[in-house]
Amino acid sequence: MAEIHKCIVDYATALGKDPKIVASYILLTPLKIPIYKENVEDAKPVLFLPGHKLTSPSLGPQPSKIMVIGKHPVKGESRTKRLFSGKNGDELCAGLDKAHLSRDDIYLTNIVRFIPPPGPTRMYSWWVDVCMWFLLAEITLVKPEYILLAGSDACKAIIGKKVSSLKGMIFDHKFENGRTAKVCGSLNPAAVSREPSLRTEFLNGLEYFASVITGKVIEGKECLYSVIEDVPTLENTVNRLIEEGHTEFAVDAEWGDQYPVGKLRSIQFSWDTGKAVCAVLRDENLVPIGEDARYVPAVIEQLKRLLERPGVSIVGQNLRGDLKWFNDEGLHLLSNFKFDTMLADYVLEPNRGHSLTDMTLRNTSMGRYDYPLLEYIDSAGLKVNRDAYKYIPRAVLDEYGCQDADATLRNKRALSLELEKQPKLNALFNQVMMPLQPIIVEIEKTGLKLDKERAVYFTETFNTACDKLELKLREAALKFEMENFNPRSPSQVSTLLFDKLGLTPVQTTQGTDWEMVSGYSDEQLDDLSIRPSTNKRTLAVLSGEHEIVTLLSNYRTVYRLTSTLFKPYVVEDDKVTPADGSLLGYAQYDGRVHTEIAQTVITGRWSSRNPNLQNIPARRDVLVRHILGDETIPPTRSCFIADEGYLLLEFDYQQAELNIQAILSGDREMFEVLRNPERDIHAELAIKINKLAWMPEMGNPKKWLIVQGLSHMRDYAKNVVFGASYQGGAFTLYLNMLDSGVSCSVEDAEYSLNLFRDTYSIYQSWANNQKRLVWTQGFVENVFGRRRYFYKSDDRGIMAAQEREAVNYPIQSTVGDLINISLLRINNARKKHDLHFKFALQLHDALYFLVPFDEVEKTREIVPECMRVKIPGHDEVLETSSKVYVRWGETPTIDSLFQHGVEKNLALRLIGNKV
């Protein structure tokens, strides 16, 4: 057992008492004691609070079946002298009640027993050292059978792992004092209080904990798994399953190394609860397990017989990740792929975790079957992100593979029942989300052709500019006696701005306004670990106060490009190679960049990763040209080019979100101004804000402002329109204006926002009603039935953020679903008209296609019509615009079209139509 810490010994000695007696007294009653890390001179008195049973008025250890161990007491508990009181206690008790765990047999304590001195929320290891004797003494006296570690700090202190690694695991743990208890990791109720969206995960964790205590979890029992490593046995199994009439199979795969250099190690499938087969392909060296080169093709042939049959329904967990591996082996399952458990879970509840682990803990009795695998990975120090499961021994991997397939099928059946209870969501999943899979696979497979020469130009140009800006900043900082200044170091930037230049901070690093701590002394700020932020907002507010602020903003803009898309080259052993994570690094053997699409974005739209092609904003180009002083720099998107014989076509919904908010709210004035080509919502608001003498008979207001030399007023108003639409406040709008280089005051922003709300009062009334739904209904729904759930909190900031989301979600998700349905209609039209264009990309409100020259005009005819999807409950559709590119983002010239091989008449028609 741990020794009594020197802090306690010194305290007892000063009182002339036996340290053991004092320590025992601390176990029973609140007491203020000085603690220190190294020297007594640094001691700070802190309040130690004892543990206690949840429902007992007495303090101190009492025998209990369950012990809950948190991080440390919080300030409010100093008054009540009770742990887990206030909001944190309410969250814990609600969870215990929902899990049907009796409050009467639960003991509460913390890793750190004292309320920390004012300062950071992190928990220092020496605090744990001070308190470990008390925790072990409590475990000896309480004699818990089960221990719930609430939060990552408690998990790391006892087990050495974060709570995310322990989720759903319950195992015997032997403590230093010789006591053994079943230990389980859980979220901390305090985390749920801060972020209510975690409540579902917290409650699920407690329910699983309770199911183990009551004996409901049956881990691995009654499972009939087969590991097959020869073709005759697999053939017999396939014959039997076909004869028995099985047509639904959950399919999964394990592989080694990353795609496309790696290889599949196994393919596993399940056809009934507790029944699965793992067909082994390769060993840890990615070598086929049999010496016969025909072994793997023969296994694949048997799997084709079973899984590619007409009428077979394939179930998978994020199966698109496996499909490319299957295709390379000759197994083609896309046409039979009918149910993805991750997508079904996302459709039902977008806020909860959608991993197979999360779902299995919620929906099955299998528990954390992956524990042996995780233990091996930890003990061997493997890098799964780099090598995948290449080095996992078969004794571990084969069983795990069977369990993965079994868990996927069990989850499918549970999720199907949930979907059947919600017809709208069931239709959305089966008629939209799943039919999109072949299209997404095509987008990922098609990719975009990278012009490596232009990518090299961007890499060299932006890195050279970044180096020059960094040199300027170092020279500027040197004038203030700062040598080797690093503009990427927040602490050095803070010193330069606020200590050397004497500028006034705007925000703390904790996100609060600096005005709230302006009366604190430097010593107090240091004690509280309060530092001034150097974030984007700060630089925006301080812009114009010193040229160094502008230099920093410019540097960060360019550095963002050189740290993501156009990273500097890597030089190793005199060999120059593209950096991982750069566009050049992502270019595959075919000269193309293949992004990965995710459908589980909370807004209902798609995201792009590896690389994120949605993160190449066109608006940044103008700012970069200005910073570099070179207007000839082409758009960053232009490093992607159309293939020979193809053009890249873009079809974009016009002002999609504004139109949707007008339609959903029923604000006819907003709708009319958006649809009338002789009107302009931004220009008309600019005229109202600035009280200009324009009348409708004077013509298009946007053109009128340009003629008057007042187009900057429209830019200002555009910020107002979107700021108001996204329910931002005056100060947020003010910061956005500064970031856009527009000068205004907070009062100006407030006046402009109020003017927008008065002008479009029907929309604002609708928005206010959406906010009320957070409190009254707990969710909002778009016109297709897609939902977003909300969680009540005492924190006004959290509720305000959820209110904004309640307004934005139906708008953004409706646009997302319109695009989803459009893609399905376009795919059907492509088949009907026997066209051969390729789906290339989906970006925000736009769709991109690689179109053969001879199909350009037909595609431009049918795609806009397919995108005219009627909005359910409203007799309206969105209008589209289109563009044609040789290089993405560059308006083609007649010469560029000719050079690309476009026939003269077609090129002239495209240019003549200003496309």
Please, what is the CATH homologous superfamily of the largest domain?
Answer: Ribonuclease H-like superfamily/Ribonuclease H
Number of strands: 27
Helix-strand makeup class: alpha+beta
Biggest sheet, strands in spatial order? 3-5-4-6-8-7
Q: Output the CATH class name of the largest domain.
A: Alpha Beta
In round numbers, the mean pLDDT is: 91
Residue runs with pLDDT of under 50 for 5 or more positions: none
Beta strand %: 5-15%
Number of domains: 4
Oligomer: single chain
What does the main sheet amount to?
Answer: 6 strands, mixed
Gross morphology: globular
What would you say this structure looks like, in words?
A six-stranded mixed β-sheet has the order 3-5-4-6-8-7, sandwiched between helices. Strands 9-12-11-10-13-14 form a six-stranded mixed β-sheet, with helices on both faces. A four-stranded antiparallel β-sheet has the order 25-26-22-27. Helix 13 (about 340-350) packs across helix 17, helix 27 (about 655-665) packs across helix 34 (about 760-775) and helix 31 packs across helix 32 (about 730-740). With about 900 residues, the protein is of the alpha+beta class. About 45% of the residues lie in helices and about 15% in strands. The protein folds into four domains: about 5-215, Uracil-DNA glycosylase-like domain (Uracil-DNA Glycosylase, subunit E), CATH 3.40.470; about 225-435, Nucleotidyltransferase, domain 5; about 450-505 and about 545-640, no CATH class; about 640-665 and about 775-915, Alpha-Beta Plaits, CATH 3.30.70. Helix 12 links the parallel strand 13 and strand 14.
